[in-house]
Amino acid sequence: MRSLLTAATISLAFTLFLTPLFIRLFEKLGWGQVIRTPENAHNPNHQAKRGTPTMGGVIFIIGSIVGYLVGTLTGGAPPSISGLLVIWMMVGLGAVGFIDDYLKVRQQRSLGLSGWRKVVGQVLVAVPFGIVALNFPNRVAQTPASPYISFFRDIPMLSFLALGAIIGSIAYLVWISFLSVAWSNATNLTDGLDGLATGAGIFTISAYSLVTFWQFQQRCTSEALVAAYQAACYDTRDPMDLTIIAASFVGALVGFLWWNAPKAKIFMGDVGSMAIGGVIVAMAVLSRTEILSAIIAGVFIIGPGSVILQRVYFKATGGKRLFLMSPFHHHLEMRGWPEITIVVRMWIIAGMLAVTGVGLFYVEWLASL
């Protein structure tokens, strides 16, 4: 518990007090937000945001790592392979976003990496994660991830290895790559208004910290569990360490939100939004709750879902539009909703979905007793 509180406190203090220094540094480096020209803009009012320092995701990535390392080391337990895998996905997908951001700033264009290049980068991060996650068993043969599709826990009938060692391994890596690409792009599309993705990320990752903390309390290796509870225990390899890195990430986001809330002094950029996606997919895979993540992190599905619906409807109707703009939050802007109203209501939706996911997780545990 000391590691948990220390990690969250250190990461919170890091981003809360050091972000102004990073803002001045980014201004000197010329890392200002590039906004689409008025002819192509989602909303002409966004032109006022041009030049605001961006790539702020670098700040909470560093803050999360610092908080996690200090928390684990002061708690007397070294970082686990599971915690390091979360950091790998956070940093790796954040790096893809950083390249995208840097190209935008350097070229002064709103387009950085092409879609396929971005996907290739995301897959190059996801594949090593998937490989390592199936190795490094602990003393009771638990690995960070498993070759199963999971909901509240592994689904026995949905094993990739049932397809054979080679085909199953390939299918497993395709699954991990799909999750990584889907979640990192989903969080990226959601990051369109001041504080929207940051606040939603706080609710989502906080929910995952509760899930993994409960798994720690009900872990299969715990001698405190009586026989009656064994059917409901969890095979998560390092649940407490996952809780610590999640708490550290939430602390960093909370501190960053102080400066990112409307009107934002700094934007997280693609480096930040994709890092949030990386943490979501890593927590989902390592806690064996991949399908449940669609509920816990459901707020991040609204944006890409609206984009898909817009394109399908456009093609099906020969050019008609379902929304005034997509993603959906830009549609609400065009309907005249104030930015702060959209952001706060999306936070409320994020909170309700996160609570619903955690509630379903707990109900499943009760049903397993």
UniProtKB/TrEMBL annotation:
Gene Ontology MF terms: metal ion binding; phospho-N-acetylmuramoyl-pentapeptide-transferase activity; UDP-N-acetylmuramoyl-L-alanyl-D-glutamyl-meso-2,6-diaminopimelyl-D-alanyl-D-alanine:undecaprenyl-phosphate transferase activity
Annotated residues for binding of Mg(2+): N188, D270
Membrane-spanning parts: 6-26, 55-75, 81-99, 119-137, 157-183, 195-216, 242-259, 266-285, 291-314, 342-363
Cofactor(s) in the UniProt record: Mg(2+)
InterPro entries: Glycosyl_transferase_4 (IPR000715), PNAcMuramoyl-5peptid_Trfase (IPR003524), PNAcMuramoyl-5peptid_Trfase_CS (IPR018480)
Compartment(s): Cell membrane; Membrane
Cross-referenced Pfam families: Glycos_transf_4, MraY_sig1
One GO location term (cellular component): plasma membrane
EC supergroup of this enzyme: transferase
UniProt entry keywords in alphabetical sequence: Cell cycle, Cell division, Cell membrane, Cell shape, Cell wall biogenesis/degradation, Magnesium, Membrane, Metal-binding, Peptidoglycan synthesis, Transferase, Transmembrane, Transmembrane helix
Membrane topology: Multi-pass membrane protein
Catalytic reaction list: UDP-N-acetyl-alpha-D-muramoyl-L-alanyl-gamma-D-glutamyl-meso-2,6-diaminopimeloyl-D-alanyl-D-alanine + di-trans,octa-cis-undecaprenyl phosphate = di-trans,octa-cis-undecaprenyl diphospho-N-acetyl-alpha-D-muramoyl-L-alanyl-D-glutamyl-meso-2,6-diaminopimeloyl-D-alanyl-D-alanine + UMP
Annotated family: Belongs to the glycosyltransferase 4 family. MraY subfamily.
HAMAP family in the record: MraY
Role this protein plays: Catalyzes the initial step of the lipid cycle reactions in the biosynthesis of the cell wall peptidoglycan: transfers peptidoglycan precursor phospho-MurNAc-pentapeptide from UDP-MurNAc-pentapeptide onto the lipid carrier undecaprenyl phosphate, yielding undecaprenyl-pyrophosphoryl-MurNAc-pentapeptide, known as lipid I.
PANTHER family in alphabetical order: PHOSPHO-N-ACETYLMURAMOYL-PENTAPEPTIDE-TRANSFERASE, PHOSPHO-N-ACETYLMURAMOYL-PENTAPEPTIDE-TRANSFERASE HOMOLOG
Protein name: Phospho-N-acetylmuramoyl-pentapeptide-transferase
